[in-house]
Design goal:
Elements: H1 3-19, H2 22-47, H3 52-64, H4 76-114, E1 125-128, H5 131-144, H6 147-150, E2 153-157, H7 160-170, E3 175-177, H8 184-189, E4 197-200, H9 208-225, E5 231-236, H10 240-253, E6 260-265, H11 267-278, E7 291-296, H12 300-312, E8 320-325, H13 329-339, H14 346-351, E9 353-358, H15 363-366, E10 373-378, H16 383-396, E11 401-407, H17 414-420, E12 426-430, H18 433-443, H19 445-460, H20 485-508, H21 525-533, H22 541-560, E13 564-565, E14 575-576, H23 587-605
Parallel strand pairs: 1-2, 1-4, 2-3, 4-5, 5-6, 7-8, 7-10, 8-9, 10-11, 11-12, 13-14
Helix pairs in contact: 2-3, 2-4, 3-4, 5-7, 5-18, 9-10, 11-12, 11-18, 12-22, 19-20, 20-22, 21-23, 22-23
Length: 611
């Protein structure tokens, strides 16, 4: 064998010896044993004059059992060659089997520690994360998965410590450790090509870029494999500044032939939306008292709650008061006003949102009255401090206090405790990411419907125009899947405010609602129908009330995005002549708000029994 052939042979054999599976190594071992036996048979045949059959037997027995060396008594060369083949067989076969046995034991131990996954996974759900947050998400996933789907739930942890915590908390059998989902090992082990749903929590990796890399790798893998099933990916991103960029990138890298749907979810915003929807600030009928939200702390959830309130918390009694309580109140004020400098405009303060920043709560200083509707949101990453402060709030009797939001982390035991406390002031656990994640898509259903109505209207008016570049002339004309996050938030705010309008309509007609968080449309069906049909086209007070609320909501949304009043509209400079009091608008512009309300109510009335 030449040097080049030898190097080529060894180059092919070595990767199998070092990195191959046990099965491939066994095949290689069998080949090497066969080669050794053939070499020994050739030696016995030509050197000792044995027949081919006897030569093969001599070689086989000496390679497998060194005891046969004792039978070589005829000559010294025979004894020497027999000893050489016996030692070679002992080293090759015995050593190899010991090594393979050790590797098999190590592999079994590794599988036991890293989790054992069933073979043939198909249509399964994969959740990747760590800590108590992962435990809570798995619990939430079990709530929205069917009994059969729960058996196909695979939990992925990045290390043994995280794996042990999940097993200890939920007893999940199908738990696995994968350092990276995007590499071939992780993709193969988890059968991601056959998965139905992948949930990527933000704490699975410290680098959001790795999340994008994972989505890109999966997209490329699905292109090559031509998979038939649809894969839905939910990726948690709580940095508001990153969401638009990440969504834009995923829209570009995920093509239709991959059959992938990627949802970038801001859980803090979804949690805030859920909190105000399920337990609204106008928790009792709004008559003459002001609706007030006091936010203690400035966590990510607190910030999302603040901006959500600015956008949608607009009621018949003006203005809505929002108070931020934090030792660094001035710094927070500067940050807020840098994003929305016109929040301090007198018209905004008088008619929309009266926002103030204080370093501590002083009952007299806040100026709340007994007839006000006050909600206190206690926001902190420490559950103990949140619960203690909430209990203190129920005892200090802040005038007008009706309910307290407690920002509790996923799986906190204080949630059940808060629900069982008997008090005139309701304690409400909010901010749970798992619950918000479960409902995130449901929260967007109304927003999607509103956008579909808008697209249909634009198409009918022939205003939805596509440029030669393949892009729409207006960024608002894209379908929901391609819509940027800013314009999605416009639809969400409009959809979230529907419940506010319905409660205002109920209060206007003194209709009692069994649950102000989940509104039974049937209780308002006659009133909604009268507004929508309005055969006489008269200026109805109830429609005017709702149109005013819609204009206030739209104006506050624009102000929150940094827009300001100007005589001429300029989208680049964020200027609009319509950011002003409803009474100062022309009848034509008021008509837009009225028509918007009618379309929203018509969409509701078209779905009988909807809640």
């Amino acid at each position: 064998m030449s040097r080049a052939m030898y190097k080529s042979f060894w180059k092919r054999i070595w990767p199998t010896l070092a990195y191959g599976s046990i099965k491939s190594k066994l095949f290689l071992l069998a080949g090497m044993v066969l080669l050794l036996v053939m070499l020994g048979a050739v030696t016995a045949h030509f050197a000792f004059g044995e027949s081919i059959g006897d030569a093969l037997w001599w070689s086989w027995t000496h390679a497998l059992d060194p005891g046969f060396v004792g039978d070589d008594k005829e000559s010294l060369p025979r004894k020497l060659w027999g000893s050489i083949f016996a030692i070679a067989g002992l080293i090759l076969i015995g050593g190899a089997f010991i090594t393979l046995a050790e590797e098999a034991a190590h592999l079994s131990f590794e599988r036991m520690m890293h989790g054992r996954l069933p073979k043939g996974l198909n249509g399964h759900t994969v959740i990747a994360g760590r800590g108590q947050k992962l435990v809570a998400f798995v619990t939430a996933a079990r709530n929205f998965l069917s009994a059969s789907q729960q058996n196909d739930l695979v939990v992925v942890a990045p290390d043994i410590e995280a794996l042990s915590q999940v097993r200890k908390s939920i007893g999940q059998d199908t738990v696995s450790i994968v350092d990276q989902l995007r590499d071939g090992k992780g993709t193969s082990r988890l059968e991601l090509k056959n998965a139905q749903r992948i949930i990527l929590l933000d704490n699975f990796s410290d680098d959001t870029g790795l999340m994008l890399d994972t989505i890109l790798s999966l997209s490329e893998s699905r292109k090559l494999n031509s998979t038939k099933n649809t894969l839905t990916i939910y990726a948690e991103v709580n940095n508001r500044e990153l969401i638009n960029g990440i969504r834009s990138v995923t829209n570009n890298i995920v093509s239709s032939d991959t059959k992938m749907q990627v949802h970038i979810v801001n859980i803090c915003e979804a949690s805030a939306r859920l909190a105000l929807k399920a337990n609204p600030l106008d928790c009792i009928p709004v008559k003459d008292g002001k609706v007030t939200l006091i936010i203690e702390g400035w966590t990510s959830f607190a910030q999302s709650l603040f901006w959500q309130a600015v956008r949608v918390a607009h009621f018949p009694v003006k203005p809505t008061r929002i108070v931020i309580v934090h030792p660094d109140a001035e710094l927070i004020k500067n940050d807020v006003l840098s994003a929305a400098p016109n929040l301090t405009d007198q018209w905004c303060v008088d008619q929309l949102a009266d926002v103030s920043f204080v370093s501590s709560i002083n009952q007299q200083g806040l100026g709340t009255a007994a007839n006000d509707i006050v909600t206190l949101a206690v926001c902190n990453s420490n559950n103990d401090l949140v619960f203690a402060r909430a209990i203190q709030a129920t005892e200090t009797q802040l005038p007008g206090l009706r309910q307290v939001y407690l920002e509790l982390s996923d799986g906190s035991g204080y949630k059940n405790a808060a629900a069982k406390i008997k008090s005139n002031i309701k304690l409400i656990a909010v901010g749970e990411h798992a619950q918000a994640f479960e409902l995130a898509e449901k929260l967007d259903e109304a927003a999607k419907r509103l956008h579909e109505i808008y697209i249909k209207q634009r198409t009918g008016q022939k205003k939805r125009k596509m440029l030669l570049t393949g892009q729409y002339e207006s960024k608002s004309d894209y379908d929901w899947e391609q819509l940027d996050e800013t314009r999605r938030s416009w639809n969400r705010a409009s959809a979230d405010h529907i419940d506010v309008k319905l409660r205002a309509l109920a209060d206007y007609y003194n209709i009692s609602l069994a649950d102000r968080g989940v509104i039974d449309i049937s209780a308002l069906e006659d009133k909604i129908k009268a507004i929508v049909e309005n055969k006489d086209k008269e200026l109805r007070p109830d429609l005017e009330l709702l149109a005013r609320l819609e204009h206030d909501r739209w104006s506050a949304e624009k102000i929150a995005e940094g827009w300001a009043y100007a005589a001429e509209k300029d989208e680049n400079l964020k200027k609009s002549p319509y950011i002003r009091a409803y009474d100062q608008l022309s009848e034509e512009i008021k008509g837009y708000d009225r028509n918007t309300v009618i379309k929203i109510l018509a969409n509701l009335s078209d779905k009988p029994g909807n809640k």
